[in-house]
Design goal:
This protein is an alpha+beta fold. The chain is 27% helix and 21% strand. The protein has one domain: Neutral Protease Domain 2 (Neutral Protease, domain 2, Orthogonal Bundle). A hairpin with a 4-residue loop joins strand 9 (125-131) and strand 10.
């Protein structure tokens, strides 16, 4: 399986005009079926309070609130479908059919590599079978740098399309990989494999990677995960493109973030599939995309990653498309099934996976970042190790390593996205931990839904007006709906019962 990371993930999704269903906020004395008894009795809420809404027999959700104010509702679908949207609000009809959307096919995986055990010195040569996106080429590479941890192999066969090599950037990437990325990845995620017996990680610098359309990639075939590995090179190899002198991302820090991401794919595959003796097992690819985004964060390079998880909250302004937002998130399309990458929602699903796994890491205790840049585990690192090492996949891995119901975690996580940074609420299950600056890289660990990212002012997850909601929710997804009341009111929203809706309401004003 070849794992790619493209930054900053331009808008791949196409927008559609929103419909404008009628307002479903009813006065408490309106005589509707959504009475106080149906919703469990009237609820008095102060600013910052969160309450569960009642899911009624017809699939609708409702609550009676006694105080005037502004309320934000997290409407969540707990249906387990993939790529399905259900109707709610005035577009709901009892016989409405789910709306499927297609996914790309799951990429083929491969099998055991050819073991190439060797003691490498500067100037040594070897051949690699590499992909340029349309096929495989056999190239010769020379070991241009050898350290205790890393071998830099430089392609001598493929012409450099940029004409010259920025040696300063390349060796800057090598130095940063050696410190702090490699020791941090090993501490937080686990020791990588050593299938070639050389005790080192190889970085192959080749213009074929640029031809492939990537900054860097890895293939699990190289460490023996999968079948049909006729082009495996055998070893822990990161395939790195030539730095593009015209790109803003071709800095040593920018490239290092991608290398940290790709290297984590190898660690995950080794523990999850290799050591567990299930090299042909298939899992939703967005699980490992989430762990690799977490590696960008926890190795200190949570920079470009912000654009990805920001799009999973609300990238409407920066990408010009309201589908680049939480409206396209689905936990099912991240943790359930073995479907392929979704070309229309790729960035959003990557970002959602990271946000969910970061949430689990923090709920397990997270870690303390010390003044010298070292980490002290408070439970989060131990949880990551258990998540990588369990043979369970997807939802089963989440439940098995947390001891909690997946649906309960999903409700708390969507509540956390709604609450964090918006109001004061003391429940640690409904708040991300404050961000901490890395004393080594200067970037911030963690999540702030209201961060300023180089002039992009994040505003939390996308919120729709209750009376103008778009009327569609992904199975496993969430819609945030806001309304202001002037007195005691019943908030009631019709939802297709197949969506298995639950909802929570937060008073924000």
């Amino acid at each position: 399986m070849r794992a790619l990371f493209l930054l900053p993930l331009p808008a791949l999704l196409v927008g559609c005009p929103a419909s404008h269903p009628k307002d479903h906020v009813q006065p408490a004395d309106s005589g509707t079926a959504d009475s106080a008894s149906d919703s469990g009795g009237p609820v008095s809420m102060a600013v910052g309070d969160v309450a569960d809404m009642t899911t009624n027999a017809d699939g609708s959700v409702s609550i009676d609130v006694t105080e005037p104010g502004t309320y934000l509702v997290a409407l969540v679908s707990l249906a387990t479908d993939n790529d399905t949207r259900y109707a709610y609000a005035s577009r709901f009809t009892a016989d409405s059919a789910p709306e499927p959307t297609p996914s790309a096919p799951f990429p083929a995986k491969s099998g055991p590599p050819t073991k190439v055990s060797m003691d490498v010195a500067v100037g040594d040569e070897r051949t690699f079978s590499v992909s340029d996106g349309s096929g495989y080429q056999t190239i010769t590479a020379v070991a241009s740098s050898v350290s205790d941890n890393v071998i830099l192999w430089t392609d001598e066969t493929t012409p450099n399309g940029f004409g010259e090599l920025d040696q300063t950037t390349v060796y800057g990437v090598l130095a940063l990989f050696d410190q702090p990325v490699l020791p941090r990845e090993r501490q937080v995620f686990g020791q990588e494999s050593d299938v070639d017996g050389d005790g080192k990680i190889s970085i192959l610098l080749s213009y074929t990677v640029n031809e492939y359309g990537a900054v860097a990639y890895v293939t699990w075939c190289d460490i023996g995960v999968g079948t049909n590995c006729s082009n495996a090179n055998g070893g822990e190899i990161v395939y790195l493109g030539i730095p593009d002198p015209t790109s803003n991302y071709s800095t040593d820090y920018g490239i290092e973030e991608t290398v940290a991401h790709e290297f984590n794919h190898l660690i995950y595959a080794w523990y999850k599939f290799g050591l567990n003796g299930q090299p042909d097992a298939q899992e939703n690819p967005y699980v490992t995309e989430g762990t690799s985004a977490l590696a960008q964060d926890l190795t200190g390079y949570n920079n470009g990653n912000q654009y990805v998880w920001g799009a999973a909250l609300d990238g409407t302004a920066i990408y010009g498309d309201d589908k680049m937002s939480v409206q396209s998130v689905s936990v099912n399309d991240v943790f359930r099934g073995t479907g392929g990458y979704d070309s229309k929602r790729d960035g959003v699903l990557r970002g959602a996976s990271y946000l969910f796994l970061r949430y689990l890491f923090e709920q397990a205790g997270g870690m303390t970042v010390n003044a010298d840049g070292s980490f002290t585990d408070n439970g989060g690192i131990a949880w990551i190790h258990s998540f990588f090492q369990t043979p369970a996949l997807g939802v089963d891995a989440v439940e098995g390593t947390t001891g909690k119901s997946f649906n309960d975690i999903v409700m708390d996580w969507y509540t956390c996205l709604m609450v964090t940074g918006r109001v004061d609420n003391p429940n640690p299950a409904w708040n991300y931990q404050p961000r901490v600056v890395d004393p080594i890289t200067g970037y911030s660990f963690g999540v702030d839904p209201y961060a300023d990212v180089y002039g992009w002012q994040m505003t939390g997850p996308l919120v729709q007006d209750w009376a103008a909601a778009d009327g569609k929710i992904y199975a496993g997804g969430v819609e945030y709906l806001q309304t202001t009341t002037t007195g005691a009111t019943t908030l009631s929203m019709p939802v297709d019962p197949a969506a298995m809706a639950k909802a929570r309401v937060l008073r924000v004003e």
